[in-house]
Amino acid sequence: MDNSKLKEQVEIIRQAFGYIDQFKNEIFVIKIDDVLISSPYFPALIKDLVLLHRMGIRIILVPGSRTRIDEVLKTYQIDCQTAGGVRISPPEAIPFIKMAAFDVSNNIMTMLAENGAHAVIGNWVRARSIGVRDGVNFQSSGIVEKLQIEIIKNVLEDNLIPIFPNIGWSLSGKPYNLSSNDLAFTISVQLNAAKLFFVTDKGEIRADGFTVPEGIYVSSNNVISQLTLPQAESFLKVNAESPNKEKLELVSLACRACESGVRRVHIVNGRADGMILKEIFSNRGLGTMIYANQHDHIRPMTISDIPEVLSVMQPAIDEKILIKRSASDLQQKVNDYVVYDVDGTVHACGALHVYPDRQAEIAAIAVDEMYTSLGIGKKIVSFLIEKAAVSKLKAVFVLTTQTSDWFTKLGFESVNISDLPKEKKDHYNADRNSLVLRLKLDRYRAKRAFKVGD
Ligand SMILES: CC(C)(COP(=O)(O)OP(=O)(O)OC[C@H]1O[C@@H](n2cnc3c(N)ncnc32)[C@H](O)[C@@H]1OP(=O)(O)O)[C@@H](O)C(=O)NCCC(=O)NCCS
Q1: CA angle 410–413–415, rounded 5-degree value
Q2: Which domains does the chain have, with CATH numbers?
Q3: pLDDT tens across 26-36, in order?
C-alpha cells in the first residue's frame, strides 16, 4: 500500500476512536427517505446504524414514507393535492396514509431485527391540525404538538431503537399525517440530540443550481461540505427564489435545529455506501454539515501538540517548501505557534515571530494535505495578521519559495530583502533565495481586509 493511502487510513482510524468516546450515550436522530429502501446500499445503511447503536450511541429513527404513501393512495385511487409542498390529507385518506407509514416503519424494524438490534414503533407524538392557511384547508395534515419525552427516554434507556412513523394523534385520538422532516427536527430539539441526520435520495447540498455566497467553500466535486449557521442563513437568503425547495427546506430546518441547541445537522446522500459512518467518524465527511458553534478553531499550540504539528509540516518539509524544524525548535517558540484543531486533532499550524522593529514574520504555515482548499490556510494567516494588528505591529512578512501567489492573493506585496528586520536580514539564506512578501498593517487596519473566522 502506498504511504499516502496508509496515512489516510491510519488517520481515519484515529479519528474514529476519538469520536467513539465523544458520542457514547449521545442521541442521534436519523430521518431516512423511504425511497432509499429499494437502494442496494440500504441493507448496509441498516447495518451501520446497528453498529452505531452497539457502540452506545442512542439512535432514533424517523422514516419518511412519502413514496409508500403515494403507492398506497394510487392503488386505492385516492387523490391528494399538495400546497406549498405539503400533502393535503382528506380524512378518508388517513387510514391508507397510516397503513403506509407503519408499513415503512415495520419494514425497517424487521431489517434491524435481522441485524440483531431491537426496535420499537411507538405512538409518542401528540399532533394537531395545520388548519386553514392562506385559504387552504390542510384537513388531516397535522403538526407536532408534544412528544412524550419521558417515555422515549425510557425506551432509549432500555437499549431499544425508537422508530417514529409520521403519524401523530390529537388528545381526542384523531390521527394526523405529519411531515417526517418536521418530526425529526422536533425530536432532535426536544431530546437535545447531538446530531440530526437527513439521509436523502437527493444527496447532499451541492453548489450547482444554487448561488453560493462568498466565504462558503465548495469542494472540487461541487459539494458544500460545511456551513456555519450564519453561512447557512445567508445561503437561504440568496437562494430564496430557487426552485430547489426540498433542499432549502432541509437547510432551513437545519438552521432552526442548530439555533435550538442541536449541535450538528448532516444532510447526506443515502445512495452511496458508508456515508453516515464517514460523516460521523471523519472530520471531513462527504455530506453537508451545518453547525452552530465553530466546531473547528484556532488556538495556541501546547507542548503536547508538537508531534502532530511536526507531522502536519512534514510533507511541505520533504518538498523543501518549509524549512526543517525540530521538536525543540518548536518548544522554544511554543508561544508563537497556533494550531487549527478539529475535535481534538491538529489539521494546520502557523507561527508569528515578532521582531524588535515591530515587524513580525508569518512562518510555518502548513495545512494537513487531506484538509486543503477548505479555507483553513487563509483562516490561520488571517488569525496571525489580526494578532499582529492587535499588538500594534507595523507589518507582517513571509519568506516563501513556492507559495508567493497564494500570499499575494491574501494581500501581501513583494518587497526587498533590505526591508526585513535586521536580525532576519543577517540570517537570510541566499541559497534558498526566498521571495519576501509583506503586508503593511496600517493599510490592513484601514481596509480591514480580513476578519478572523471568515
Ligand atoms: C498553501 C497552503 C497553506 C494553503 O492552505 P489551504 O487551507 O489549502 O488554503 P485555502 O483553502 O485558504 O486556499 C486554497 C487555494 O489556494 C490555492 N493554493 C494552494 N497552494 C498554492 C500555491 N502554492 N500557490 C498558489 N495558490 C495555491 C489552492 O489551489 C486553492 O485555490 P482555489 O481556492 O482556487 O481552489 C497549503 O496548501 C499548504 O500547507 N501548503 C504547503 C505549505 C506551504 O506552502 N506553506 C507556506 C509556506 S511559506
Answers
A1: 150
A2: 3-292 (3.40.1160.10), 297-447 (3.40.630.30)
A3: 999 999 999 99
